[in-house]
Automatic annotation (TrEMBL):
Name of the protein in its database record: Medium/long-chain acyl-CoA thioesterase YigI
Alphabetized SUPFAM superfamilies for the sequence: Thioesterase/thiol ester dehydrase-isomerase (SSF54637)
Gene3D superfamilies referenced in this protein's UniProt entry, alphabetically: Hotdog Thioesterase (3.10.129.10)
Stretch forming the signal peptide: none
PANTHER family: 1,4-DIHYDROXY-2-NAPHTHOYL-COA THIOESTERASE 1, MEDIUM_LONG-CHAIN ACYL-COA THIOESTERASE YIGI
A Pfam family it matches: 4HBT
Length: 162
């Protein structure tokens, strides 16, 4: 099926779906809440998040640098959010509440992180997009950026969709 790229760019989710997905992602997933991971933008083709620096995110031996585990967890979470957005787009004919019920069985099956530079800054931006959404597996690409927009880490992930 060929799609008009301008139609994809113009598509936005209903406020009920965005609010519900944001609540699941920022509040109900406890680890995301601990990280302080917030949704900045939620579009079917690309999601953006933000993490503000706080003392809990710094490794004890990495003075003022975000710990690699935080970077990995943030990228993994954003990959999952991108899959949720893509699944939400796939089932647009369903009411928002019904689409939100689909995310209970989403899980990571593979994750690769490339750490490119030290993560030093007051906040960080994360982007994720789905490269392929199959019936059971989704492939994603993610980025972890510094406050100046420099790429600090990149990732690729695969997620199971049940």
């Amino acid at each position: 099926m060929t799609r008009d790229p301008t139609a994809i760019a113009a598509l936005e989710f209903e406020e009920e779906f965005v609010t519900g997905l944001r609540t699941i992602f920022e509040e109900k997933i406890v680890f995301n809440r601990v990280l302080g991971l917030q949704v900045v933008s939620l579009l079917p083709q690309r999601v953006t998040g933000r993490i503000a620096m706080k003392p809990e995110l710094v490794g004890h031996y990495l003075f003022n640098r975000v710990h690699g585990g935080v970077i990995s967890a943030g990228l993994d979470a954003m990959g999952g959010l991108a899959v949720m957005a893509a699944v939400g787009e796939r089932h647009l004919a369903e009411p928002p509440a019904q689409r939100l019920q689909r995310f209970g069985k989403l899980g990571t099956i593979d994750l690769r992180i490339d750490y490119l530079r030290p993560a030093i800054g007051e906040h960080f931006v994360l982007h994720a997009e789905v490269l392929r959404l199959g019936s059971r597996v989704a492939s994603t690409r993610m980025e972890f950026l510094g406050p100046d927009g420099k790429l600090l880490a990149s990732a690729a992930g695969a997620y199971i969709i049940s």
